[in-house]
């Protein structure tokens, strides 16, 4: 009788969170699924940034740095006009528009030039994405499990679970990867190899102290934490609207992720504008000179409310597909690893039966 009671309790628990139990995967499998999404997003979005930066470069003199964003993370590209070998962003060419830039770059420099800067992007995007997605999924599942136990008969999850999990996961990701981003920026500006990371790290700590490894983390968190909280809350909401069954779907995840990314990108654009204004001061004061509050009022005073939403359209058309690719790849990973686990389980049962016979 006790065995029957235990089984009945487990069945009731599985019914309260069917999509999590049926398609729950290990942390290692979650890392692999998110890694796939990071690579795909970088491959698809990087050409857009290459063209954007090349268009910007022809309109004015070479600035101190470029803000390079592939939809996953932001990076700095230091400019050195005195170098004998021109970097990809300083190559000659006049472009009349986006399509003209795509055509001329591909024709004169080769199609591979559209993926300039991909390597340093992946070096940081992959670990950051893995930490972000694994932390979110693990935290969401645990909070939902505890909520369903504390509230018998409930089958869903309140909005605060994905909101809290998304924001907290982004704090972990940004905080851990921030030192790597600063080291990479320093390596690029000084043309250091990856084998000289330890040397660059010692130089940075000796010069500015251990706290220098996290310079700029506050404005980054001010943008990314609200974005993640809004994104995951909307994604879980759209998922309920579009999913007619508990099984994840690539197409429905793609649509839900794209819409959630669009909403989050629109709401958090002022944070992105403030962060960009602080970042472009590289080489003038500190890496992120000026406080977040001061920068906000400076933009508000100079450009009005519209200034806080500058670049809204290009941000949305970049972030939305990036979010769609990331989450649909992640959800598909659940399906793939679940099918693989079931296949192995059936094979093990068959093997045991053969041995018994």
Structure write-up:
The structure is a single chain. The chain is 71% helix and 3% strand. It contains 12 helices and 2 strands. The chain has helices at 2-16, 18-22, 27-57, 98-109, 118-150, 160-190, 197-208, 217-242, 250-267, 269-279, 292-307, 312-356; strands spanning 65-69, 74-78. A two-stranded antiparallel ribbon has the order 1-2. Helix 9 packs antiparallel against helix 12 and helix 10 crosses helix 11. The radius of gyration is 23 Å and the shape is globular.
Could you say which structural class the secondary elements and strand pairing correspond to? mainly alpha
Ends distance: 31 Å
How many strand elements?
A: 2
Order of helices and strands: HHHEEHHHHHHHHH
Number of helices: 12
Q: Average pLDDT value?
A: 75
Q: Which percent band covers the strand fraction?
A: under 5%
What summary fits the major beta sheet?
2 strands, antiparallel
- Uncertain segments are 1-20, 282-289
Note the overall shape.
globular
- Spatial ordering of strands, largest sheet: 1-2
Integer-rounded radius of gyration: 23 Å
Task: Give me a quick take on this structure.
With 357 residues, the protein is mostly helical.
Please supply descriptive tags for the structure shown above.
two-stranded antiparallel ribbon; 357 residues; 71% helix; globular
């Amino acid at each position: 009788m006790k065995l029957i009671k235990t089984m009945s309790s487990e069945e009731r628990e599985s019914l309260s969170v069917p999509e999590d139990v049926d398609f729950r995967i290990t942390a290692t499998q979650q890392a692999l699924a998110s890694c796939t999404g990071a690579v795909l997003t970088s491959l698809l979005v990087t050409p857009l940034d290459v063209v954007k930066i090349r268009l910007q470069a022809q309109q004015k003199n070479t600035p101190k740095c470029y803000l390079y964003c592939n939809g996953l993370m932001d990076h700095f590209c230091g400019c050195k006009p005195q170098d004998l070998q021109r970097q990809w962003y300083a190559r000659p060419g006049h472009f009349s528009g986006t399509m003209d830039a795509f055509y001329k770059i591909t024709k004169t420099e080769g199609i591979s030039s559209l993926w300039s800067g991909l390597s340093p992007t992946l070096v940081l995007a992959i670990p950051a994405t893995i930490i972000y997605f694994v932390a979110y999924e693990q935290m969401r599942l645990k909070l939902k499990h505890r909520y369903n136990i504390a509230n018998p008969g409930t089958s869903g999850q309140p909005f605060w679970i994905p909101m809290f999990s998304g924001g907290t996961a982004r704090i972990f990701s940004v905080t851990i990867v921030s030192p790597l981003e600063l080291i990479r920026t320093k390596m690029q500006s000084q043309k250091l190899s990856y084998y000289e990371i330890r040397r660059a790290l010692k130089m940075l700590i000796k010069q500015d102290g251990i706290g220098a490894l996290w310079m700029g983390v506050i404005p980054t968190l001010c943008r990314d934490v609200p974005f993640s909280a809004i994104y995951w809350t909307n994604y879980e909401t759209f998922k309920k609207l579009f999913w007619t069954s508990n099984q994840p779907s690539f197409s429905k995840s793609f649509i839900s992720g794209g819409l959630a990314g669009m909403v989050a990108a629109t709401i958090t654009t002022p944070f992105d504008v403030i962060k960009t204004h602080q970042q472009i001061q590289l080489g003038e004061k500190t890496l992120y000179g000026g406080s977040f509050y001061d920068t906000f009022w400076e933009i508000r005073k100079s450009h009005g409310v519209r200034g806080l939403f500058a670049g809204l359209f290009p941000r949305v058309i970049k972030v939305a597909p990036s979010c769609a690719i990331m989450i649909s790849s992640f959800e598909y990973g659940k399906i793939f690893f679940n099918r693989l686990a079931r296949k192995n389980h059936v094979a093990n049962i068959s093997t045991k039966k053969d041995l018994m016979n």
